[in-house]
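I am writing to request your help with a piece of structural work I have in hand. I am sending you one protein, given as its amino acid sequence and as whole-number tokens for its backbone shapes. Kindly check, if you would, that the fold set down in the tokens agrees with what the sequence suggests. You will find the record immediately after this paragraph:
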Amino acid sequence: MRNFSNILLTPILLIMALFASCNNPKPDNNGVDSLNLHWTKLGELPPESNQGQATPNPGLAGPVAGISNGYLVVGGGSNFPKGLPWEGGNKAYHRKLYIYRLLNKENGDTALLSPVIGEFPYSIGYPACVSTDTGIVVAGGENETGPLSTVELIHIDKSQLEPQLKITSLPSLPVACSGAMITAMGSKVYLAGGNNANGHTLGQFLLLDLTDTAKGWQPLPELVQPTSFGVLYADQPSHTIYLAGGRKSNVQARTTFYASLFAFNTENQNWEEKANLPYSVSAATGITMQGKLLFFGGDQGETFHQTEDLLLKIAVAKDSTEKRQLTLQKNTLQQHHPGFTRQILAYNPALDQWKPAGKLSFAAQVTTTAIAWQKGVIIPCGEIRAGIRYANIIEGAINPTP
């Protein structure tokens, strides 16, 4: 396996950054008493240097994100550094990684330690990311060249005097794809769906055993429906993989948004349809917690579909004046994007039932990865409106019971 990076995490740089002391979102206790989640701003991406001047970090959508050996890794991703889409700006993909040391909540720590900066082997956005005991698996994604088939393992090595960032290659995916979904059950990593180079949504479902990577990605029974940008969960006690929501691209037609939930039993290798979500939604995040599937935010597709409709009209418009008017409508629509649903949902497998579980008390982040951490969740960066990225790192922690 190639070793792309071996970066020293210098302790001198790991000074306390009191991010959580300012601009913390207020906790939202509406409907989450059973989980007792308290939301705070844990940190943010550091400022960028622009011609010698520090400027606020514009944030990242589709970032590399995960936790290895108590370190949060966030980076790669995409944004619009030279103008938003309606201003003529082009999407840029990045390779910089920010590595934060997470603190121990049991000791009363409330912030990240400031980051060390490393690099991914190549620019990347919208990969499928999952944290495992071996490291953070980063599969597929896209960059300026299109969808990627490459898969890397990010590992923070603490075996030496000072921790080091190591990135090694894993077997490539059989098809280059972006917007796929991934989860892990022990050493076994499951990847589902995604969009290929032609923009078609895939129904692939694959397995990679991290203890025997020489076998590569093994095909499993395909998804019930081609899906990208859904949420894939692993429930180890029941040997079940769940796939919630997501969407499917259609040629010269509106994208299909799903409200579906499907369960795959890893022992009998069968897919089964479960209770639908209350609404169709894609690009959400989620984790398993206390035996339930938690589903955070997401795009319900209203502005997404209106934008698609205008793009379809622009594509067939023959009159230049009409084309300009339609483009102006599209740009105005995106510029005034209302943001995404802040609803939190909880699924109870025993009852096969979804219930509202409160609302996020900050702007809902889509196209990112929720990461389970110390009985809570960390959601880094993401997109909060069309074209608008987020630099904040948010944590939902379970308050101690009195």
